[in-house]
């Protein structure tokens, strides 16, 4: 799946540069203010951790080290980013396979592990909808990605396909060289044109077609999810928020759509969680499924998403 231009990593780089500059200023101020042998002033930030050794096959990456460990390194070496979390069961299946393959690659590529809970801005930059998510970075740009658990053979084939496209050598671009123009996906352009022309059903069908043809196409899947939600929510009578019966599952799901469309995610999620609490069987499953679908419209690190997931777990168990 081509991802060039689909995500913006510049914000992470700028944040890392700002934090590094701040740490350097603080360190210089402490050096001036303290005599030799003095203890650090309590509350002052420690200097940023140094980059991992060039020969390391697996690297833990944070927002502060993202620029050096991922963007800069990818100018010379393929970097595979593993977006994971401690609570994610599938991540614990996939990560050891990736780590072993990276170690066995002999430096051909490096694995950069990102805890999405500890580094939410990186997850947001990659528009993470679900984890595990694995992204290949070449020359500072994401070029392909996949979600979910893959077998060792599938991952090996995926890596080989990347090298077949970009070559085994990844030299840094010559100084002052103009970047090559990005190649836009004509299918995505056609879908966007339909959207701009007001053909919402046609745009939705176009985005769905791309997502079905390329299950790993995060941009198309995200566009389809968002447009599908908007069309469904706009079809509801806003009065449903006040008139929905607590045990009327369809009405409560419609009310949640209306609330979410009006930028009230906490209230929308609470509506569905209340339905989960008072129902069982197929109705409870339907409510839970809808809530999980709505979660996918947001960055998983958003506070209101994290809080709603906890509430859902409590309601279920």
Description:
Strand 2 (78-84), helix 3 and strand 3 form a beta-alpha-beta unit. 54% of the residues lie in helices and 10% in strands. The protein is of the alpha/beta class and 317 residues long. It is globular. It has helices at 10-33, 66-72, 89-104, 120-125, 152-166, 186-196, 200-213, 218-234, 240-243, 249-261, 265-278, 281-295, 303-316, and strands at residues 58-61, 78-84, 109-115, 133-138, 141-147. It has a five-stranded mixed sheet, with helices on both faces. The chain starts with 9 loop residues before the first helix and ends with a helix.
SSE run:
HEHEHEHEEHHHHHHHHH
What is the residue-mean pLDDT, rounded to a whole number?
80
Helix fraction bin: 40-55%
Shape: globular
End-to-end CA span: 38 Å
The radius of gyration computed from the alpha-carbon positions, rounded to a whole number of angstroms, is 23 Å
Counted beta strands? 5
- Biggest sheet architecture: 5 strands, mixed
Q: Which residues sit in consecutive blocks of at least 5 with pLDDT less than 50?
A: 1-8, 33-54, 172-181
Question: Which range does the strand content fall in?
Answer: 5-15%
Side by side, the strands of the main sheet go 1-3-2-4-5
Function: Participates in various redox reactions through the reversible oxidation of its active center dithiol to a disulfide and catalyzes dithiol-disulfide exchange reactions.
Region (Disordered): 1-55
Domain Thioredoxin: 47-164
Family: Belongs to the thioredoxin family.
């Amino acid at each position: 799946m081509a991802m060039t231009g689909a995500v913006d990593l510049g914000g992470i780089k700028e944040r890392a540069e700002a934090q590094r500059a701040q740490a350097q200023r603080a360190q210089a101020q402490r050096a001036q203010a303290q005599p030799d042998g003095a203890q650090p002033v309590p509350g002052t930030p420690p200097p940023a951790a140094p980059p991992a050794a060039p020969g390391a096959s697996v690297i833990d990456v944070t927002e502060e080290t993202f620029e050096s460990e991922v963007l800069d390194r990818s100018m010379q070496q393929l970097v595979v980013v593993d977006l994971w979390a401690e609570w994610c069961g599938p991540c614990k299946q996939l990560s050891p396979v990736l780590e072993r393959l990276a170690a066995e690659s002999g430096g051909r590529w490096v694995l950069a592990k990102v805890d999405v809970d500890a580094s939410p801005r990186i997850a947001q930059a990659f528009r993470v909808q679900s984890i595990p998510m694995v992204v290949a970075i070449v020359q500072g740009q994401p070029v392909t990605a996949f979600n979910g658990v893959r077998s060792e053979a599938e991952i090996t084939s995926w890596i080989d396909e990347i090298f077949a496209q970009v070559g085994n050598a990844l030299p840094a671009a010559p100084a002052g060289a103009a970047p090559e123009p990005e190649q836009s996906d004509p299918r995505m352009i056609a879908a966007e044109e339909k959207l701009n022309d007001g053909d919402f059903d046609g745009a939705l069908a176009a985005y769905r077609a791309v997502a079905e043809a390329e299950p790993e196409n995060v941009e198309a899947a995200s566009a389809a999810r968002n447009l599908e939600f908007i069309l469904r929510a706009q079809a509801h009578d806003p009065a449903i928020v006040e008139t929905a019966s607590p045990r009327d599952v369809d009405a409560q799901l419609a009310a949640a759509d209306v609330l979410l469309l009006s930028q009230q995610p906490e209230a929308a999620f609470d509506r569905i969680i209340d339905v989960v609490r008072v129902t069982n069987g197929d109705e409870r499953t339907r409510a839970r499924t809808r809530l999980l679908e709505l979660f996918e419209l947001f960055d998983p690190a958003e506070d209101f998403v994290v809080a709603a997931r906890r509430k859902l777990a409590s309601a279920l168990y």
